[in-house]
Specification:
single chain; 46% helix; seven-stranded mixed sheet; Rossmann fold; Dehydroquinate synthase-like, alpha domain; two-stranded antiparallel ribbon; binds glycine
């Protein structure tokens, strides 16, 4: 088993990465001093596959386990579902010490994290990600959120988990489109921080997309090692952490505007390519590197251009971009790259410039 630590003083925790880990979570939590009630929040896809192994281990370690299941899908990341979970927690007499365990992908992790952060002003949270997206990004770092209207992740809290357990065996049942979805964040981490990892991905993307467990484990580990120190340096995103939003200014807007028909990783891939083209236009990035990025994104089964969806209109998209959480004093803090592995923040990028590269040759 691999352990990567997220150093946040008294809120530090480990990400444990390996195979066959689910049955051990109960004992690990007991050893960390937890006991009593625990609530697993999961969804209708993940529950039948993985809840039993986790539940058994928790029960063997002496926990009293309750499982709350939500329907699978991004539509659940709402205040309404959060409200239903508060209600269930109250009915189960959940206390301040009741552990919430998020078992699932990004939606379950973000939503259960938000509920854990707010129920009784915060109950302990453990993340057990079962999708690549959650393993490489959303399960650690402490961002919890729900969507609000068409604005993605607009309401939330920074709330760190006590432990993250990434059992890569769970990736075997992940649909290919979801593997690709997680790969968007993987490529992002490489592009902004690690040229060597970018080259590793160029060599190994085919193996990863064929579910080679060894390659996937390496990818999950490498991502944790890239993101953990960024979070440790800038937990609340006042500087360095902003770089993790590479591709997301455009990505969040595209995702929301498509009514979530376009998945997060796909939207981020489109956003990353738009940012790369902007960097090329401004003379930062060589055409060859833009091409390499494009090839890698395509090898992961992700799009490099905006699809022709009726609901994606230029003006509305650019309006949404102006609502991005990174806008300060009316200026977009846009993440660009100077080279593969070297990202920076620019306030020179206007919605109009973004529109030009995104809608290049498209009718709106
Ligand atoms: N997903 C970006 C971050 O955790 O900051």
């Amino acid at each position: 088993m691999i352990k990567v630590r997220v150093e946040l003083r008294e809120n530090s925790y480990e990400i444990r990465i390996g195979q066959g880990l689910l049955p051990h979570v109960g004992l690990w939590l007991k050893k960390k001093g937890f006991s009593g009630k625990t609530v697993i929040i999961t969804d209708s896809n993940v529950r039948p596959l993985y809840a039993a192994a986790l539940e058994r281990g928790l029960a063997d370690a002496g926990f009293k386990v309750t499982v709350f299941e939500i329907p699978a899908g991004e539509e659940q990341k709402t205040l309404t579902t959060a409200g239903q979970l508060y209600q269930l927690l109250a009915e189960a007499f959940a206390e301040r010490t009741t552990l919430i365990i998020a078992l699932g992908g990004g939606v379950v992790g973000d939503l259960a994290g938000f509920v854990a952060a707010t129920y009784m002003r915060g109950v302990p949270l453990v993340q057990v990600p079962t999708s690549l997206l959650a393993m490489v990004d959303s399960s650690f770092g402490g961002k919890t959120a729900i969507d609000y209207g068409s604005l993605k992740n607009m309401v939330g809290a920074f709330y760190q988990p006590k432990l993250v357990v990434a059992d890569v065996d769970t990736l075997k049942t992940l649909p290919k489109i979801e593997l690709a979805n997680g790969m968007g964040e993987v490529i992002k981490h490489a592009v902004i921080r690690d040229k060597g990892f970018f080259n590793f991905l160029r060599k190994n993307m085919a193996g990863a997309m064929a579910y080679d467990t060894k390659t996937l484990k390496k990818i999950v580990e490498k991502n944790a090692r890239i993101k953990a120190p960024v979070v440790a340096t800038d937990e609340k995103e006042s500087g360095l952490r902003t770089l993790l939003n590479y591709g997301h200014t455009v990505g969040h807007a595209v995702e929301a505007l498509s009514d979530f028909q376009i998945k997060h990783g796909q939207a981020v891939a489109i956003g990353m390519m738009a940012a790369a083209k902007l960097a090329q236009r401004l003379g930062f990035l060589a055409e060859k590197k833009v091409k390499q990025m494009e090839e890698l994104i395509l090898a992961a089964g992700l799009p490099v251009n905006l699809p022709d969806l009726d609901q994606i209109e230029k003006e509305t998209l650019l309006e949404l971009i102006k609502h991005d959480k990174k806008v300060r004093d009316g200026k977009i803090r846009f993440v660009l790259i100077k080279a593969i592995g070297n990202a920076f923040i620019s306030d020179k990028i206007t919605p109009e410039l973004i529109g030009e590269v995104l809608f290049d040759g498209k009718h709106t």
